[in-house]
Design a protein that fits this description.
353 residues, DNA polymerase, domain 1, DNApol_IV, DNA replication, alpha+beta, transferase, MutS, DNA mismatch repair protein, domain I, Alpha-Beta Plaits, metal-binding
């Protein structure tokens, strides 16, 4: 049986800004989203008390918290701190799978120090992160990735939650459906319409029933409802694409409705590209119509794509080419693929077409 730790930094970008600028400490802070149609990349816990969260449009965040302090992102600083945290992980195991700059899975079943307790290792890691970066992290400890990931979010900030094998079934059954990793807001809303509010409700559904309502994801939901997750920690896993998509409660009909959504998606994808030091040569626009039919439109370039403005220009052109959608849209998505990694990448595209 594996011993898995999921470490998640607490409000990472915002915490770094508060650490480096004492004036921001104890105040509601949001990183990114400095443009009129921007999106919040990270929010401090003071801002979250007002209902401000990452991926929220700036205009909404400011309406919820008029005293919110908007701070531009400093990715080079975040990357530097992330590398320091990665070095701490590697003191214990080489089986480290980063998910982004601020979170990672660690397999400590066989660790460099020969320690038997994964909980003790998690405590040491949290302590060393605090001592060396002046930042707090939360950790989840269990026997698979799903449980460790969910556990790390249970007692934030500065939390540590352990889910033992004999506790796993009860832990998952009591979990509100919106707290399941891999179940977003729209899927959670659909589940609630079907009477699925907790892990216990999810567990009584057959795999065939879940696949009928949620497609291939139904099999995943069936497994996690039973605390099953056989995925190993993969230290060398390289993402083949980076993207973001959003399903809308009300269908979009006009370009005026779609363009702000594309801008938010482009900003989210650009943040992820910067976090992972990646760029890509292929941009794909995903369109799902009100009748659930799917359409994708792609463009491949000689130069790499990374920045928000360029992504938005390309996505807008793809929306219009070869023709503007003739049916209402229930989902939009932007994906960048054909990726390269590292600081020294081929030249950033300066114009879309």
């Amino acid at each position: 049986m594996r011993k898995i730790i999921h470490v998640d930094m607490d409000a990472f970008f915002a915490s770094v800004e508060q650490r480096d600028n004492p004036v921001l400490r104890g105040k509601p802070v949001a990183v990114g989203g400095t443009k009129a149609r921007g999106v919040v990349a990270a929010a401090s816990y003071e801002a979250r008390q007002f209902g401000v969260y990452s991926a929220m449009p700036t205009v909404t965040a400011l309406r919820k918290c008029p005293t919110l302090i908007m701070v531009p992102s400093r990715f080079e600083v975040y990357k530097q701190v992330s590398r320091l945290i990665r070095e701490i992980f590697l003191r214990y195991t080489n089986l480290v799978e980063p998910l982004s700059l601020d979170e990672a899975y660690l397999d400590v079943t066989e660790n460099k120090l020969g320690l038997k307790s994964a909980m003790f290792i998690a405590k040491r890691i949290k302590h060393e992160i605090l001592q060396e970066t002046q930042l707090t992290a939360s950790a989840g400890v269990s026997f698979n990735k799903f449980l460790a990931k969910v556990a790390s979010g249970k007692n934030k900030p500065d939390g540590l939650t352990v889910v033992l094998p004999e506790e796993a079934e009860a832990f998952v059954e009591a979990l509100p459906i919106e707290k399941f990793y891999g179940i977003g807001d729209v899927t959670a809303a659909k589940m609630k319409q079907l009477g699925i509010h907790t892990g216990a409700d999810l567990k009584v559904r057959s795999e065939a029933d879940l696949r009928r309502h949620f497609g291939k994801s139904g099999s995943y939901f069936y497994q996690i409802a039973r605390a099953q997750d056989e995925r190993p920690v993969e230290p060398n896993r390289i993402r083949k694409s980076i993207g973001s998509e959003r399903t809308f409660f009300e269908d979009l009909d006009t370009e005026e409705q779609m363009l702000p959504q594309l801008q938010r998606l482009a900003e989210e994808v650009a943040y992820d590209l910067h976090r992972l030091e990646a760029s890509g040569k292929t941009v794909t626009l995903k369109l799902k119509y009100h009748d659930f039919t799917l359409n994708t439109r792609s463009k491949t370039f000689f130069s790499s794509v990374r920045d928000e403005e360029v992504l938005l220009d390309i996505a807008t052109e793809l929306l219009r080419t070869p023709f503007f959608p003739s049916k209402p849209i229930r989902l939009l998505g932007i994906t960048v693929s054909n990726l390269s990694y590292g600081k020294h990448q081929s030249g950033q595209l300066s114009f879309p077409f």
